[in-house]
Amino acid sequence: MVQANDNDIWLNRDDLNKTDLKKGLGRDVHFEGELFVPLSSIPEISFQINDTTAALEVTAPPHLFRKQYIDASFKRPQGLEAAQDMSAFLNYAGGYSRFNNFEYMNVSGELGMGAGDYLGTTTFTYTKTEESENAVRLISDLTITDWKNLRTCVVGDVTASSGPLGVSALLAGISMSKNYALSPYFVKYPSLSLSGSVKTPTDVEVYLNDMLTSRERLSPGSFEINDIPVTGGSGTARIVLHDMYGSESIISTPYYSSDRLLKKGVHEYSYTVGLERKNFGKKNFDYGDPALLAFHNYGLSQYLKVGYSTEASKDLINVGASGVVLIPNAGIVDASLTSSSYQGETGVNGVLGYAYHSRNFNARISMQLTSRSYANILLKPSVDRNRLLISSSIGFGWDKWGYLTAANTYADAYTAGTISMSNLSYNRSISDDVSFFMTAGMIKQIKTDHEIMLGLRMLLGNRKSGSISYRRSEDSDVINARIQKSIPTGTGFGYGASVENTGNRNNVDGTVRYQNRYGMYGMDIMDNEGDSGYRLSYAGGMGYIGKSVFFSRPITDSFAKVKVGDLEGVRVYSYNNEIGRTNSNGELIIPNLHSFHENRIDIEAEDIPIDYSIPELTQRLFPSFRSGSSIAFDVMKLQAMTGSVSLQENGEIHPVEYAILYLKGKDRTREGIIGSDGEFYLENVPAGTYDANILFKDKSCSFNLIIPDSEEMIIDLGKNICKEGKQE
């Protein structure tokens, strides 16, 4: 800094660029080989030297500061990596049913093996009745994950899709699709951005529908907060600014968000080619003609998504285009038009819809027109279809008064004729534990049928809930009462029971479920208008990970082996839900982790013996889909060794004091401290015989120190004599 003769202040250009002011302000002056900027050459700023603090004080308007860009999206925590362990699993389930002397038995299974980015699975089932039995393979595939590009490739049996408005079909082939589930922190939908400017350092709070979502600290100048995660529908965003002087200002703006859109420049797609699977569930290898199903959508802007879809097989070509348009603060309009050619016949299918959703009001209407000759992979011209399909709904309400929804569907089929279905529903919370519901419906086809139902739902505590309802239709009055208890996350029971009175008799259904770490078991009984029966069921799993084979409940997603040293009985939690206790090897299996998400695993500190130390009680894991992971909590047994050492010198023995003790073992040399009266203290030294050396003053001595194999927390090594030797 240079103070010029005209009371101007010159700042070094490099120092000025280090501030939050925009680069390139003012004019350059060369002085003593350096580049300076006279502050008077920067318009709209004022400056002075504070004589009390000896500091340069500069005041500038917000537009002279560099703009601040803040990313408010959810961030993936640091240090989380996808599991790469070699793992395998086998799920099995079965049941036996007897209903009115008809017997049915089934056994099913799923085998999977994964390593890194590869996962292979196959499923199979066996059924037996009095008339027949059948064993058949179901789905077999290999999934390859491309983390970098958020893509998934599946080879084998693939459920292919031609988009949200298309169809799904089972093919044996290969599929490539964009998979944003691989990164749940990636924002693929248009998000909200808010901007403004501040004159002083300011704290900012972001609220969405009166809910605080983030806090930030801003420097003076303009700012833009991007990727604010919003909920679907209409809402209001507020920025509350608290400056350094204690004043508060608010910036408020309405918004409308929809998951039907894509952020600008974002793709979503799926391309599948293969052979059609035929007689699925009946035959192992029965394939039809080659087929292609694909769709591709693209976010053209935050207001518009466009896309196309296609289906093709031996006799079929089906091509369509679609779009979704956001009307700012007023909802979305979506439209699609598809054309097909099947064995020389052409057809069209068009859909136009509108939807609006807010906290207290929602509305939806759509209309679909389909020509008689339109076809796709599943729908052939010979199959009856709706010429016209119109569906609509409208709903509104408030927490205090309840929510009312009305819906109607009208269908006009080429052969079956017309059918109209209307429904009116009302829900209201009476208290925190009790809610009232009512529905009324009408179906009009050849004749008109009416039905009305009303009732109460109740939360009874300790995972128990219940309901009671009354239903009246054209020819019956039905009263139903039900109570159930959900099964716990860990080991325990769950049950459900319902009684239904139809006027002539009572129908009874009952369910009991039990699960432990090795499986799930159930029994169902029923007695409905003279028809009675029961069903027994079981389900479990086996897994392999980290050179360990284990039994568990069915493994439906990712799983992990938790190891807490060799400590038995340590409680393990997954997001504060107790999973169980470690076995005699210090191990516990968690069979239900969430893939592609952060999973928090904790162990109970109270279960760690007092003579053990553990550096951490919590670990976080980001597992791949249906993968196995090893989680090791490092525990160390605390074992202290005490004793004393004396020096034998010139026929006299006296304590060695305030010296360093060196223990030389096979793997490394350990150190200890000798205090007054020759007493020493060591920790966690393995059993064995060590060459002990002591250096003190200008002398050295040595002796053999024997540490016994003991489970005691404190081992007394007694008195030891150190003989003087030559210092090295």
Features:
Immunoglobulin-like, extended, 65% strand, mainly beta
In short:
1% of the residues lie in helices and 65% in strands.
- Residue-averaged pLDDT, rounded? 88
Quote the beta fraction. Answer: over 45%
Query: What structural category arises from helix and sheet content?
Result: mainly beta
CATH-derived architecture of the domain at 74-107 and 487-635: Sandwich
Q: Could you name the CATH topology of the domain at 74-107 and 487-635? A: Immunoglobulin-like
CATH superfamily (homologous) name of the domain at 74-107 and 487-635: Outer membrane usher protein FimD, plug domain
Largest sheet: 24 strands, antiparallel, barrel
Q: Give Rg in angstroms.
A: 37 Å
- Point out poorly predicted stretches: none
From the N-terminal CA to the C-terminal CA, the straight-line distance is: 59 Å
Task: Compute the number of helices.
Answer: 1
What is the 3D form? extended
Determine the oligomeric state from the structure: single chain
Q: Helicity level, as a percent range?
A: under 10%
Give a count of the beta strands, DSSP E runs of length 2 or more: 55
What is the CATH first-level class name of the domain at 74-107 and 487-635?
Mainly Beta
